């Protein structure tokens, strides 16, 4: 049984003009200890998917249909009291900005002890010992001193390490990291991602890494999902997607990486912008920005189909595969 299984998930947001669909027909599986990347531009639905997994979608958002099975239990159907035994305990989430995660008026130690005692019946002293161990795991220097410091006294990289330590406090089976290195400089980003991979491998913890950076995904994850306008458009082993991207959108993301342009040359970019949820074009949502658009792209939403070692939702790829089969 997979650790996590998402089946036909659909998430909507209710507006005065009617509801809009933020996620459509999302399905994937995650094994224990596996590292999965979720990639796409802002507005693709990556963070909404992360929040949906732990049932943290707040009104006017709601899960309209589908399942989020964690060890066979449907999290989408659980009440808040039942979810508390899983959220933060079995599944931890690391957010983009550590200053928004950490309470500025409490010391690091107070916050870690409070988190532990909310889920376990242990003394403050025992909770402090566990907190100290977790700070050592994430290589915080002078961890006993850091426990008595406030978030503003620490650097950005140190705060993010502490957020990771808090995520590990209850020995979760799954960590969802939503753009965990966005506010950090490049060298600190590399250190944080290297640390997360090491911790996941050491503790056999599964990781869902939500990011817009395919460069980070290529270094950290084993499998990747590419999202566009609330749908999965390509999915497969990370190496195959990076080395042989098949969807025009994924190819555009890879070509937009800084290292793909020569020194002094303009950076490549995908023309246009992602459509709003209430203004999606008919057919393929990427068709207005695609250089390889076909008549079918304006008529029908492409289904995910097998292509090589990946699943791709693209009429062009399907047509090319059909032609190859005919020629064979």
UniProtKB/TrEMBL annotation:
CDD domains in the record: ABC_NikE_OppD_transporters
Subcellular location per the Swiss-Prot or TrEMBL entry: Cell inner membrane
Enzyme's top EC category: translocase
One Pfam family it belongs to: oligo_HPY
Catalytic activity: a dipeptide(out) + ATP + H2O = a dipeptide(in) + ADP + phosphate + H(+)
EC number from the UniProt entry: 7.4.2.9
Membrane topology qualifier: Peripheral membrane protein
Record PROSITE patterns: ABC_TRANSPORTER_1, ABC_TRANSPORTER_2
InterPro entries, per the entry: AAA+_ATPase, ABC_Ni/Peptide_Import, ABC_transporter-like_ATP-bd, ABC_transporter-like_CS, Oligopep_ABC_C, P-loop_NTPase
Principal localisation: membrane
Residues annotated as domain ABC transporter: 4-254
Family to which the UniProt record says this protein belongs: Belongs to the ABC transporter superfamily.
PANTHER family linked: DIPEPTIDE TRANSPORT ATP-BINDING PROTEIN DPPD (PTHR43297:SF2), OLIGOPEPTIDE TRANSPORT ATP-BINDING PROTEIN APPD (PTHR43297)
The name this protein goes by in its record: ABC-type dipeptide transporter
Source organism of this protein record: Leucothrix arctica
């Amino acid at each position: 049984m997979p650790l996590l299984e998402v089946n036909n998930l659909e998430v909507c947001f209710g507006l005065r003009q009617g509801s809009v669909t933020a996620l459509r027909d999302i399905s994937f599986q995650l094994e224990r200890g596996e590292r999965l990347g979720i990639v796409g531009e802002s507005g693709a639905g990556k963070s909404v998917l992360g929040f949906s997994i732990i049932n943290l979608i707040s009104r006017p958002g709601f899960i309209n249909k589908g399942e989020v099975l964690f060890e066979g239990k449907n999290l989408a159907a659980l009440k808040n009291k039942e979810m508390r035994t899983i959220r933060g305990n079995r599944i931890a989430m690391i957010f983009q900005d550590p200053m928004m995660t950490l309470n500025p008026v409490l010391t690091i130690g107070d916050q870690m002890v409070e988190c532990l005692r909310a889920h376990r019946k242990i003394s403050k002293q025992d909770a402090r010992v566990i907190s100290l161990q977790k700070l050592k795991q994430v290589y915080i220097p002078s961890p006993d001193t850091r426990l008595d410091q406030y978030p503003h006294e620490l650097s950005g990289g140190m705060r993010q390490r502490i957020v990771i330590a808090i995520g590990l406090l209850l020995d979760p089976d799954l960590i969802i990291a939503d753009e965990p290195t966005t506010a950090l400089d490049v060298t600190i980003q590399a250190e944080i991602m290297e640390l997360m991979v090491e911790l996941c491998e050491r503790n056999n913890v599964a990781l869902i890494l939500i990011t817009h950076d395919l460069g980070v995904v290529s270094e950290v994850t084993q499998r990747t999902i590419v999202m566009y306008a609330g749908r999965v458009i390509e999915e497969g082993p990370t190496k195959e997607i990076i080395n042989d991207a098949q969807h025009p959108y994924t190819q555009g993301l890879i070509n937009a990486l800084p290292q793909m342009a020569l020194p002094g040359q303009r950076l490549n970019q995908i023309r246009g912008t992602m459509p709003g949820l209430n203004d999606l074009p008919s057919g393929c949502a990427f068709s207005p920005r695609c250089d390889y658009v076909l008549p079918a792209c304006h008529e029908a939403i492409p289904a995910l189909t097998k292509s090589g070692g990946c699943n791709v939702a693209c009429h062009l790829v399907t047509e090319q595969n059909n032609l190859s089969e005919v020629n064979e």
